[in-house]
Design goal:
Pfam families: Glyco_hydro_79C
Strand content: 15-25%
Distance between the termini: 49 Å
Protein name: Glycoside hydrolase family 79 protein
Number of strands: 26
Keywords: Hydrolase
GO molecular function, one term: hydrolase activity
Shape: globular
CATH superfamily of the largest domain: Glycosidases
Largest sheet: 9 strands, antiparallel
Structural class: alpha/beta
Helix content: 25-40%
Organism: Hydnum rufescens UP504
């Protein structure tokens, strides 16, 4: 097979967490990690054979300050919201890195961590955070992102109250990098001087300068001794506009075509070549279906899951090293998973919501498998139809798996198609196995299943799949090959051998999961029967008992109930730090 992409790791499909909500996703602190989060990660690790690649950062990293003494609440972060800024001001404590380190101890996760860059004079803070992150995370820290979307710094809201000059040029950006590099070099505790990730230019949406312009200005050559990975950030559409907003309904069809993925990759063709020539990995550090949380009805739909698979495999084919899909707060449509709001997250563990993009991650991770030598090629299927793209995955020169996508939305079956897979050059298989990603329509939000398993709808998941794995066997014939039906809409993953399927995770689809060492006594809102009997809207006559549904209140009405999960204690050893007892709690 000609035109194969570079060898890819099984954990190619990672994700990015906005710093301001890291406590909601990872957990309150290093001894209270969110069990559903660990379960979601465990599901991916069981397929890839390696820990996930995760970035913690985003716009909210830009003004963070380090508080070595931590915070009275014991949380990983402390944040305040300013009416003059579009992002909260987030301060971090050592607990952030201890929490990340404990997740690594359990699941082998590797991290990119964001550094503050809004204040160009805060080079000491940048160096101190870098030293602490390396000390605690050790080899699990693979990059420190210096500057988030610097091509948008002319927008003074992003760096308030530290405005940049107008115009803010690439040379201005280089000058600020230089100052930070010098500050980091002056701290002996930073042993890995080649740890920075950049330039992380934004999106190709209303940008001031592009990745190609930064590279042409000599970025990789100037910082060859400090640059670990070349990073970019991209969103196909801009949902941040306050005037003339984009209509999700109007643009939805553009996500249901192979051209969308090809167009996104086309922006970075030169960068992939430059990265390879310069001996660097090119990482899509932050991406998703649209900026500013995505579009409701599009980003949280099955169509987005189809798009995410096509987009990720297109970047794998184009020699990116990782693609990290962003996770934001409660009002974000494109999340891979979202914890329940408010105090619910502290009381129950099975109330998380799984987004369609998590299903994309499962499919892509199984498609690449755990061999770490998978090479992807775009098959240009069905005469190059933009609605039925397909990819083949090769290992050591031999075909291992095939991914076929049907973007068409037709429940009648008229746009289903059957692909005949004929394997040349080696002994053809007598049969293949197939797993399907399915939903009733491209607009479906909840009724999505991968290989017969689902993660439920809103507030219905603890990060573990529900149901039994369904894998179909298809007979193959020398003359006609293996006939694979691909319904509209769906994705088919074809395993061309038993070995290729075993490399993609446990056959029964049951990865290792995590239990909690803390019992919860909360079962839901209740009401005192005496109050109910004498009430009349606001309590009726007589003494009011002042009942509340908040746990801990004297008259909360909470009833001792079953434990949230079995009791267990997990201990993790963090590289570069003391051993920490990890007490995993549903919702933290």
């Amino acid at each position: 097979m000609q035109n194969l992409g570079a060898p890819q790791k099984g954990n190619f499909f990672g994700f990015s967490i906005e710093l301001s909500i890291v406590n909601q996703i990872i957990g309150h602190n290093s001894t209270h990690l969110n069990v559903p989060f660990l379960n979601y990660l465990g599901g991916l690790r069981s397929r890839s054979g390696a820990g996930a690649i995760i970035r913690v950062g985003g716009n909210s990293q830009e003004m963070s300050l380090l508080f070595l003494q931590g915070f009275p609440t014991g949380s990983v972060i402390n944040k305040t919201i300013s009416p003059l800024s579009i992002t909260p001001k987030v301060n971090i404590g050592p607990e952030l890195f201890y929490s990340m380190g404990n997740v690594s101890a359990l699941l082998g996760v590797q991290w990119y961590s964001g550094l503050p860059f809004a204040d160009p004079g805060n080079t000491t803070g940048i160096a101190e955070i870098s030293a602490l992150a390396e000390q605690i995370l050790g080899s699990n820290l693979i990059g420190l992102q210096l500057g988030n979307e610097p091509d948008l710094y002319e927008n003074r809201i992003l760096t308030f109250p530290y405005p940049r000059p107008v115009p803010y040029t690439i040379q201005d950006y280089f000058n600020e990098w230089n100052a930070s590099v010098i500050a980091m070099q002056n701290i002996p505790a930073i042993s890995n001087k080649k740890i920075l990730a950049g330039p992380s230019v934004c999106c190709n949406i209303d940008h001031q300068w592009s990745i190609d312009q930064v590279l042409q200005a000599g970025f990789m050559n100037i910082y060859k001794s400090q640059l670990a990975d070349l990073t970019v950030q991209h969103y196909p559409n801009n949902n941040c506009r306050t005037t003339n907003p984009v209509s999700a309904q109007n643009i939805f069809p553009t996500y249901l075509t192979h051209a969308q993925a090809q167009r996104s990759f086309g922006l970075y063709v030169n960068a992939t070549v430059a990265a390879q020539q310069g001996g660097r990995q090119l990482v899509m550090l932050e991406t998703n279906s649209a900026s500013c949380g995505g579009f409701v009805g599009l980003s949280d739909s099955f169509g987005a899951a189809l798009w995410g698979i096509d987009y990720a495999l297109q970047l794998a084919y184009g020699n990116f090293s990782n693609i990290l899909f962003h996770v934001g707060g409660q009002n974000v449509a494109y999340n891979r998973f979202t914890p329940p709001p408010g105090n619910v997250s502290k009381l129950v563990g099975g109330w998380w919501s799984t987004g369609p993009i998590y299903y994309s991650a499962l499919v892509v991770t199984e498609a690449l498998g755990s061999s770490n030598v998978s090479q992807v090629v775009d098959l240009n299927m069905n005469g190059g139809s933009p609605y039925t793209p397909g990819y083949a995955i090769y290992e050591n020169g031999n075909p291992a798996r095939v991914v076929m996508i049907n973007f068409m939305n037709d429940p009648t079956g008229a746009n289903d198609y059957t692909a005949s897979i004929i394997v040349g050059g080696v002994a053809p298989p007598t049969s293949v196995t197939v797993r399907y990603l399915t939903a009733p329509s491209v607009s479906e939000k909840h009724n999505i299943s991968w290989a017969g398993q689902t993660y439920g709808g809103y507030f219905q998941s603890d990060g573990r799949p529900q149901g039994n794995v369904t894998t179909e066997t298809v007979q193959c014939y020398p003359a006609t090959g293996c006939a694979i039906q691909v319904k509209a809409p769906s994705v088919a993953l074809v395993f061309l051998s038993n070995g290729s399927m075993s490399e993609s995770g446990p056959v029964d689809g049951i990865p290792a999961t995590y239990s909690t060492s803390t019992h919860t006594l909360y079962q839901g809102p209740t009401i005192n029967q005496a109050v109910l009997a004498t009430s009349n809207g606001r309590g009726g006559p007589g003494q009011r008992l002042g009942d509340s549904t908040s746990p801990g209140h004297h008259h909360s009405g909470a009833i001792p109930a079953r434990a949230a999960a079995s009791v267990s204690m997990i201990f993790g050893l963090v590289s570069g730090a003391v051993a920490l007892g990890v007490r995993c709690v549903f919702g933290g």
